[in-house]
Fold these 2 entries.
Entry 1:
Amino acid sequence: MGDIIFHIPLANLFKKEGYEVGWVVSEKGYELLKGNPCVDKVYFVPAKKWKQRGWLNPKNFFEFLSLLRDIRKEKYDIAIDCQRMFKSFYWMITSGAKRRIISQDTREFAQLGANEIIPQNLNSLTRHVVLSSFEFAKYLGLNTDEVKFTLPETSDEVKRHVDELLKDADLSKPLVVIAPATTRDLKHWDKDNWKKVVDELQKDCTLIFTGTEGDRELLSYIGADNNLNLCGKTNLESLRELFSRVDLVMAPDSGSAHLAWASGKPAVIAIFTCTPPKKYGPFGNDEKYIAINGGLPCQPCWFTRSCPKEGSGNKLCTTVPKPDEILNIVKKLLKKHTANV
């Protein structure tokens, strides 16, 4: 989901210059693009269904061909591979676009899908991915002064659903969403740290917890059951609407954090462990959006799925920053953000 959000400004640059924009996307990002003014056509790839069937299932092949025909009949002039991995390679090479553009820093032989390679290295750990993506626009001679995030309009039905979810919330206090889970274990901040933060914040804030059914045990441990626990009760659209009504969202490097700052309303604290905060943190107002890690010499280790260190150093990045440091940031953000609302 983060990959989709990070590249919405790039799509908006093309729209501003009069291009027609199509976007190939799988399940996680489809709801963010359907009805989004940044794109004209959304091509939905049911990757999860294909994987469940087995990649060699003939039904997958025929569905792929049908989708490919829809793409090719538009006769796109340019295809850009922002993901730069094998799963985007085969869409690039079969797209029918005259110009197929990628950057030099690819993985999994993705360069083979392109016929133009821009020299910029987009994998810099110190440059935000939003700005790195603009190198494609610069290569094509577009003006890149504007960074514009857009999301689809929320339906009245979803607004009523969120009204119902929040009907018992104490709106006289600052509204804080805690979304502590993500897909990769090494990106999780220590659960005891979360528990200490929750114990302190629930005194003065209305705490709202979000996550999937698989996150229920974690949320219960850190204190969600004593507050407003929406675990399993929100989808992507209702989560966007929820974020548009609260003062602060706290999360690890996750889709929830990215969605929160893209929505534009709440302040955001994103707690990073193994991944680089300067590259993937909330983009924009540094006084409203905070991306923080513990400042350890081994951070970030980025693409690793498990901690390479042994003994006392193992997963040390998941234990820092300490709760008191996060609580101080929360208090400053809430004081500033609620004063401006």
Entry 2:
Amino acid sequence: MRRHASTAVVLLAAAGILFPAFPAATAADIVAAPTGVTIPKGYRNWQVVAPSQRDDKDEIRVILGNDIAMKAFRTNRLPFPDGTILAKLAWKRVKSAEFDKTFVPGEPQRVEFMVKDVRRYAGTGGWGFGRFVNGVPADEKEHGACFPCHEANVKGHDLVFTRYAQ
């Protein structure tokens, strides 16, 4: 348990340093994903919900939440209320040069968002999904894979994989 906590601290510290590698939206360059989801202004200043790792993609991720999301996580509120936005920042996982047996974020891979709006996204469980690589939205086919995966795996948790790391 202690090793996992130390790894999480290293990952979060590295993620804080690397957040600038992900694009920040400005009024001049707001581009929407095929779902209508855009990169929210100021998302890099949101609070950390939890780190995660995906071995099949060799990635380290940090999930952030806006104020509405964080309040829902802290109070165990399901379903999440409209206005909830989650951001997932993903990096290639690389071995640390300074600390053996540790992995740290490498090259940024993408940033993804889930936006809760029950009316607007009624066909996808109340969630809009947006995936961006270097600030450019992924294509419609990639976006089409989001909802089926969330529905198949986390339907009982309002389609959200991440659990709050307290």
